[in-house]
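Exercise 4. Each item below gives a protein and its sequence. For each, produce the structure-token representation.

Item: ABC transporter substrate-binding periplasmic transport (Streptomyces azureus).
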Amino acid sequence: MTRSAHRTRRILQAAGASASALLTLSACSSSDPGTSAGSSSAKPSGTVTVFAAASLEESFKTLGKQFEKEHPGTKVTFNFGGSDTLAASITGGAPADVFAAASTKTMAIVTDEQDAAGTPATFVRNQLEIATLPGNPDRISSLKDLTKPGLKVVLCDESVPCGAAARKALDAGGLKLTPVSYEQDVKSALTKVELKEADAAVVYKTDVRAAGDKVEGVDFPESAEAVNDYPIALLENAPNPGTAKAFIALVRSAEGQKVLSRAGFLKP
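Answer:
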């Protein structure tokens, strides 16, 4: 090999090494928001979008503020609603990082389309309760009392978890009930009672507790037959997976569980 050819070869080798180094550096600096390549200790950053069942609103807003305080520079945005509606939005391509559903059935809508990254984890459970007007003027003491003539009762639509659970509880009691309306999420059902547009609604214990003195809660034994598991999952196309994982970790942590327990949720 001539001296000139040997020199050319060395120059090409050096250029190749430099290009490789630049590519490695580029990969480290342009990783997904909230993460760094190959690092599990990167600080959460940027915005994380959470789609969550309506019944989680108060608890998740508290956890969102806590997360932002613990991780300056982050922002947690929420979309609360009926789990089935949220699941349909996710499978339809709506950008989101995390999905927290009020039942395994609605989470399956997302996992069946392979839109969840990994296996969803149950983080809490929830039980039904009857919400009545303050002071319980209609003297409702059981699920059967909701079948009284003239009583205006509201249920969630059976396509959403609270409605499916109410149907299961009614079936367990051998009861038939025709509500004045079916609502698309549990908050809408509760609002009907708060506004005195209904005498009672079958909702979650957590929603009754969140409403304070606006309603009164009545327990009923059939609710034990219709306890809902709440799964949470990182989404496959999450724009900010690193920060999303950190938020999920907070929800599942002992600290997060304390917030959820105070709201009336049951341990998984």
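Check: Confidence is low (pLDDT under 50) at residues 1-40.
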